[in-house]
Amino acid sequence: MALVIDLKPGEKILIGEAVITNDSQRTRLHIAGDAPILREKDVMQEQEADSPCKRIYFLLQCMYLSRNPTDYHQKFFDIVREIRNAAPSTAAFFLTISEHVLQGSYYKAMKTAKDLIAYERELIDHALQQPAK
């Protein structure tokens, strides 16, 4: 069954290593095959990876789009270890993400990493609301 994607005018999509930009009209694509596909809204540029959990997402994105995703595994697991040591409450997220990585399900790992980024934001907001001692 083909994946159906509706693109807004000017919206971009990555299919494999190609960036496709929609023209001035709404377009519906039917895509069959096994190439990695990312909508523009799901793409994180490296300079946007400005927090530990965003760096995790960026590495997962690199794995998803790479022909050799295992090239990123060591860096990924090193950062996971650092974050888990600093914030043990992230363990459940990383258990799920790591399972997806080891299974080669990088897109599913990216989806869970979005939840992790939201959780990181909550932790940071909570820390900023604490009165100074």
Structural class: alpha+beta
Tally of separate helices? 4
Overall average pLDDT: 94
Radius of gyration: 17 Å
The largest β sheet comes out as: 3 strands, antiparallel
Flag low-confidence runs: none
Helix share bin: 40-55%
Order of helices and strands: EEEEEHHHH
Number-wise, the strands total 5
Task: Chart the SSEs and their pairings.
Layout: E1 3-7, E2 12-15, E3 18-21, E4 27-31, E5 37-39, H1 52-65, H2 73-86, H3 91-103, H4 106-129
Antiparallel strand pairs: 1-4, 2-3, 2-5
Helix pairs in contact: 1-2, 1-4, 2-3, 3-4
3D structure, described in words:
The protein is of the alpha+beta class and 133 residues long. The protein folds into two domains: 39 residues, no CATH class; 86 residues. It has four helices and five strands; from the N terminus they run E-E-E-E-E-H-H-H-H. The strands form two sheets. The protein has a three-stranded antiparallel beta sheet, with no helix packed on it. Strands 1-4 form a two-stranded antiparallel ribbon. Helix 1 runs antiparallel to helix 2 and helix 2 packs antiparallel against helix 3. The model has no long low-confidence stretch (mean pLDDT 94).
Features:
133 residues; alpha+beta; three-stranded antiparallel sheet; two-stranded antiparallel ribbon; 4 helices
